[in-house]
Write a structure and sequence with these properties.
2 domains; globular; Aminopeptidase; 21% strand
């Protein structure tokens, strides 16, 4: 039988001591009367909640804020933004971004077959870049993606956790991002397109982006008309594509205009 001896009194005491120390550190990190030197030390904690509390504390000195601004931790950056501090936009891969009827889940290698099914569909492939039908190539690409911090690739799911589409954020240019690989499975409810777009823009604001840019095939009229209704401006074209940009103000107006599709905004689940 496995060893299932109960914890000793010393172990319990150590656990209680650690919990008390963490509670005290969180209290100090949140207290505007905490001395600057203490806040600087707490900003170096390994605990993201403590660093986040320091980031949100209006008494935190610039020395600590400068260090926190260079972080890639989603919670800490979110706390800085809640204070109104502008942070450098970063692609942070959330485990899940939860909307009203949809969930955007970070892709993994087990999604290869579903992604391939969408991308080689005879009708949908007319308007996206060509993809090999080799499943192993798709698996290999997804393995590389897991180590790639220059893009975010989501599977779109309904509330029953059934896969209904994909969407990708990539090509960061200062505070603008590109999004594409936006494919919704045939037979999905019509509101899935607008809600998935709203989730993307809400999430991009959370990441620190203020603008977006993208291209759409000229033949994909339903999509480029959707973007134009949403507030995107056509800024150029090639033989095959229209090029668009959309500003923070235009995005914000559309988030408000179509808020009935996402009445409670989004919630974000990260791994760190």
């Amino acid at each position: 039988m496995p060893n299932t001896l109960p914890p000793t009194q010393d172990t319990i005491a150590d656990s209680d001591k650690n919990a008390a120390e963490r509670h005290n550190a969180l209290r100090q990190a949140s207290d505007p009367d905490t001395p600057a030197d203490t806040l600087i030390n707490l900003s170096k904690s390994n605990d993201e909640l403590i660093r986040g509390a320091v980031a949100f504390n209006k008494s935190t000195p610039d020395e600590a804020l400068d260090a926190l601004l260079n972080e890639k931790n989603a919670h800490v950056l979110s706390c800085l933004r809640k204070r109104g501090i502008r942070t450098k936009p970063l692609f942070i891969k959330a485990n899940r971004v939860i909307g009203n009827n949809l969930i955007l889940r970070n892709v993994n290698t087990e999604d290869a077959a579903f992604i391939l099914e969408l991308r080689i569909d005879a009708n949908k492939s007319k308007h996206i870049s060509k993809t090999s039908s080799d499943l192993q190539q798709q698996v290999t690409w997804l393995k590389k993606y897991a180590q790639d911090d220059s893009q975010i690739y989501f599977i779109i799911q309904n509330k029953n956790l059934e896969n209904v589409g994909t969407v990708r954020l990539y090509d960061q240019k200062e505070d603008s991002f590109c999004w594409g690989s936006w494919i919704i499975k045939d037979g999905s409810p019509s509101n899935f397109s607008i809600e998935s777009a709203l989730i993307v823009y809400h999430y991009s604001f959370w990441l620190g982006f203020n603008n977006a840019h993208f291209d759409v095939r000229k033949g994909n009229a339903s999509v480029w008309k959707f973007h134009e209704r949403f507030g995107a401006t056509r800024i150029g074209e090639s033989s095959d594509d229209y090029f668009y940009s959309i500003t923070y103000d235009a995005i914000s107006k559309s988030l408000e205009k179509y808020s009935r599709f996402l009445p409670n905004g989004i919630s974000i689940e990260t791994s760190a």
